[in-house]
Structures are given as C-alpha cells and as structure tokens.
Amino acid sequence: MQKSPLGIFEKYLSAWVLISMIVGVAIGKIFPKIVAFLDRMTIYHISIPVAILIWLMIYPMMLQIDFSSIKRVGKNPKGLIITLVVNWLIKPFTMFGISYLFFSIIFKMFLTPALASQYLAGAVLLGAAPCTAMVFVWSYLAGGDPAHTLVQVAINDLIILVLYAPIVLFLLGVSKIQVPFATVFFSVLLFVVVPLLFGYLTRIKIIKKKGLAWYESDFLPRFKPITILALLATLVIIFSFQGNTIIKDWFNIVLISIPLIIQTYLIFWIGYGMSFFYKVPYTISAPAAMVGASNFFELAVAVSISLWGLNSGATLATVVGVLTEVPVMLSLVAISKKTQHWFHFRE
Hints:
Layout (H helix, E strand, L loop, with lengths): L7 H4 L1 H18 L1 H9 L1 E2 L2 E2 H15 L14 H30 L6 H15 L6 H9 L3 H29 L6 H30 L1 H37 L1 H28 L4 H12 L3 H12 L4 H27 L8
Antiparallel strand pairs: 1-2
Helix pairs in contact: 2-3, 2-10, 2-14, 4-9, 4-10, 5-6, 5-8, 5-11, 5-12, 6-13, 6-14, 7-8, 7-12, 7-14, 8-9, 8-12, 9-10, 9-13, 10-11, 11-12, 11-14, 13-14
C-alpha cells in the first residue's frame, strides 16, 4: 500500500506545534476561566476533552493497519527481527539511560530533582513505544518497501498491548518513580486497544462493502487531516495549562530536546547498522531503522496525562518529543537516501 508524501500538516508539523504552543499559552493567560473549566472536566484523573482528541488522533492510524499482512512475516524475517530487537530490547533502555544521564547528571545544575524525574518519566513513555503512523510516511519518502512496513507496524501494535505497560513500570520503578499499574494498563486499554478494535472492525466492514481500492484511495484520505488537527487541538489545551511554566522556564524545553534528539539518531544508526551487517536490502533496512527511531508520541502523551495531568513536567517532555520528531526524521530520510548505495549489492 503506497502512501502519499508529506502534506502541509505533516511537512510543517514542528511549525504547527510552535503555533499551538503560542495559542495555548495565550489562552491560558487571557482566558484562565476556560482553563479552569477544562481542568474540571475529568473522570478518574483523565481529561475528557483530551481523551476524545486522543481517540481522534489514534483511530485514523488504526484504520491503516492490515493485520492480515502478518501472514507475510516470513518473507523478510531479518528486517523484522532487527526491528523487534531494537524496539523492545534496546530502545526503551537507551532512552532511559540517555535521559537519566542528561536530566539527573549533566543538567543537574539547571533542574530540580523533582523536575528531572518528571522529564525522565516523559522520556520513558516516549521510548517504550515505536511509531505506528508517521513511519508510513518516513518509509515512503525513503523508498522503503510499503508491504514490509505494514507488517512491522502491525506486529509492533500487537506487542505494544503486551509489553508497553510492563516496560514503562519497570523503568519508572528503577528511577524510583512509583505509578499504579492499573492506571498504565487502563491507559493502554483506552488509547490503544479500543481504537485498534474499532479501526479493525471499520476496515473489515468498509472493505467488504466497497473494496480495498476504494478504502485506500477514498476512505482513508478523509481521515488524514483529522489526526493532525486533533493533535494540534490537544497541544493547545496542554500548553494552556503549561503557559506559566513555558514562559518562566523556556530553557527547559531546549534541555528536554537534547537527549530526545540524541536518542533518535542513536536508535536509527543501531537499526540501520544491524541491517547493513546482516545484509538486509535497503528497502527493508530503511523502514526497519525508522520504526524504532520515531515514537508513538500520541500514546505517550495520553498515558502521561492520565498519570500526572496536563500541567506536569512529564507531559511537557512528551510534547517536546512531538516538536522534535519531524525535522529529525526528515534528516534521517535524507541520510537514508544518500547512503542507500551501501545496500545496492544486497538487493
């Protein structure tokens, strides 16, 4: 299934995030009553408006997943094995290690211990889940195999259901950040299982009625703007709560971005290097490296809000992940295209 290149929302996502930041901060300063009203709209510490917006973000992603593609898993096993090893045995732990190094040691003079722990928690939430949506775009732009990318995403989505909560709880426990298992589990259930199930049922029903060609060419494009618009609306709400923090401690956003960017490049080169070493074709190597390099930031934002609220340092850290993702991943696409000749004799 071929995906279209970056649209205006995806291409300039970082700019849209900055605009959302400015709008959100302005709303928080000019209309504090609106922020107070939104703060009261919660059930069991989950913001109702944000929950709805996150569903609108994640549901269109799940419409793209074809779980029948898993039957093709044996066609390129090396690329898939590399992706799974990087995503689940390496990435969460390097994210924890790099973030702890920067937030608790290198940046110790700039951050209080409590704030360092919050930023570390947000980074852990980002690092524990590989990308499930934008990776289709990165794979397309890099010239990756779309069928194999679909297999990778489908299998990682299933693994997220089982491993995300235990990995997050383990790493947060190592850093002595105590969180209830029930909250993390419920967040995964609410923001992954439910939209995944509805997306799967929608896909089956529409394809049966209209056919796969109509589904991919007409139905899916209608939902494409919804994900980005819901994301931007969520960010406006988050930044309306984070306004005072951002104005007072804008430097912290720069501090948060440094380990996140280093982690992204590191994971890409680990995956890309392993693919080269094991003689995996370029069309498999590029998406295999990018699935781990990018993050399922929508899930990270949702879980952080459920655990610590809209105005927490952890939530700010997950949002900075959104801010840095697009320019960094576009640079990795450029690197992949410039180095694809390394793999030519392997095709």
